[in-house]
Amino acid sequence: MRALIFDLDGTLVDSVYPHTLAWQRSLLDFGLSCSAWAIHRRIGMSGKLLVKTIAREQHRRLSASDIEKLGRHHAQLFHKLAPIGIPLPGAVRLLAFLRKSKIPHGIATSGKHAEIKSSLKSLSLRPATIVIDGDMVSEVKPEPDLFLLCQQSLNVKRADCLVVGDAIWDIHAARRSGIQSVGLLSGGFGEQELYNAGAMRVYRDANALHQAINELGFE
User: Fold this and answer.
1) CATH code, 177
2) N or C: which end of the chain has fewer CB within 10 A?
3) Which of 81, 97, 124 is at the close of a domain?
4) CB atoms within 10 A of CB 61
């Protein structure tokens, strides 16, 4: 392996549960009551797909305008719940190690540019770090577009890349892209779920991944 492609929420930054609560309140304000656990299961896929899925389960049809309004409301609520990004254990140290070791790496997230500023700032990234967000592709996870664009931007072959994500949606998108993946438990998905989705390895968090980095072929 030569390069790493990271998901953001739940992988590098502790933002899965604020996103869950923000979606729950946003949906409720729109007349869609949904348990937090059911929303959590879908964090990592596109907001559009998340809303459509929950609405369909409740036999509601939403217009494109409705979905757009829900997305904006969610973003506002999320920033109130998590105004400052909080890195997950070992994330900043791992990224610093990759920079020092000159191992190519990038971030590919379904989040839109305006929504991820605080999270990116918390990771102490260098300006040259490749970040692919939801505004840069036509389709986000579980579609492979984000990972493929990041891989191309890193100028590394797919066979030499490894996706790191916390949700089954990351693993599904990686499989569709033809890139191998590892899972982290830091976003709330179970170990067996991530293996079943196609992860080649599963680690507790970014810190555990760092400790095992040589096992994955990185020096």
Assistant:
1) 3.40.50.1000
2) C
3) 81
4) 8
Residues 133, 138, 167: CA angle, nearest 5 degrees:
55
- The whole domain housing 150 covers 3-15+85-216
| Shared domain check, 96 and 190 | yes
pLDDT value, residue 46: 86
Strand segments, DSSP code E, in the chain are: 3-6, 105-108, 130-132, 161-165, 180-184, 201-203
107 DSSP β-pair partners: 6, 131
Q: Is the pLDDT of residue 218 over 90?
A: no
CA 17, distance to chain mean position in Å, is: 13
Check the CA dihedral 82-84-89-93 and report its sign.
positive
Strand partners, 165: 183
Averaged over 1-19, what is the pLDDT?
96
Query: pTM for the full model?
Result: 0.94
Q: Examine the domain organization and report whether 64 and 162 are in the same domain.
A: no
Tens-place pLDDT, residues 57-90: 999 989 999 999 999 999 999 999 988 999 999 9
- Other C-beta atoms closer than 10 Å to the C-beta of 86 total 13
Nearest by Cα to 43 from 108, 111, 106: 111
Q: Using CA atoms, how far apart are residues 48 and 56, in angstroms rounded to an integer?
A: 12
Beta-bridge partner residues of 161: 3
Candidates 12, 147, 140, 19; CA nearest to 79 is: 19
The verdict on 74 and 96 lying in the same domain is no
